[in-house]
């Protein structure tokens, strides 16, 4: 049954995206806030379909910890899920993403219109310098910057693999950072079409204040995010013994 529901949801998910991109195409010429409206419409409708078809819900905790103005958002990255679901809680954001995404027909137009930060990852240190400069400009406007500290999706239970780039941008922009713990990979695993029923848990942790020494920030970010993520994973596994058996078989 999970396989059938997952297949149906995946079809609906991408059809929904395509339809919204076509219907919302005029927003590309109306500024980033119009594009954000379409992005949130996609997020809300996707979460609704996920709940209706797969029985997968979401619980957002610590929303009161989200500050106002410009700051860095540093989420744990386990799934595609957080790339659309988290945007519901931030008013004027920009993702740091690989420039190849902007080459995708239509979808890339939306990214450009929303003024996202597209970088050439293959250019090494110059890519980080470019991202830092663009981040300064966006944060100065009171906007928010999404940075996935591990750079790419990591499976549940995998050792953390944080990149130092987030610490570099933090140290150069002098803004707080909001760590975001989550366990989306339990229910929407990377590189899998399976969507498992349950409740995806997300926790917005208290911001790390601006001004810490770079290494101290990097250490604190990793320690706090990993500890909170482990607790969320364990909570969901205790709720669902079948899910626990599945995860243990994958990790083992």
Q: In words, what does this structure look like?
A:
There is one protein chain. This protein is α/β, with parallel strands linked by helices. It has one domain. 47% of the residues lie in helices and 14% in strands. It contains eight helices and seven strands. It has helices spanning 2-23, 32-54, 81-85, 107-113, 125-140, 165-173, 214-239, 241-251, and strands at residues 56-61, 71-75, 93-98, 117-119, 144-146, 177-182, 198-204. The chain has a seven-stranded mixed beta sheet with strand order 1-7-6-2-5-3-4. Helix 4 links the parallel strand 3 (93-98) and strand 4. Helix 5 crosses helix 6. The protein is globular. The chain starts with a helix and ends with a helix. The mean pLDDT is 90.
How is the main sheet built?
Answer: 7 strands, mixed
Query: How many separate domains?
Result: 1
Instruction: Compute the number of strand runs.
Output: 7
Mean pLDDT level: 90
- Principal-axis shape: globular
Describe the secondary structure blueprint for this structure.
Layout (H helix, E strand, L loop, with lengths): L1 H22 L8 H23 L1 E6 L9 E5 L5 H5 L7 E6 L8 H7 L3 E3 L5 H16 L3 E3 L18 H9 L3 E6 L15 E7 L9 H26 L1 H11 L1
Parallel strand pairs: 1-7, 2-5, 2-6, 3-4, 3-5
Antiparallel strand pairs: 6-7
Helix pairs in contact: 1-2, 5-6, 6-7, 7-8
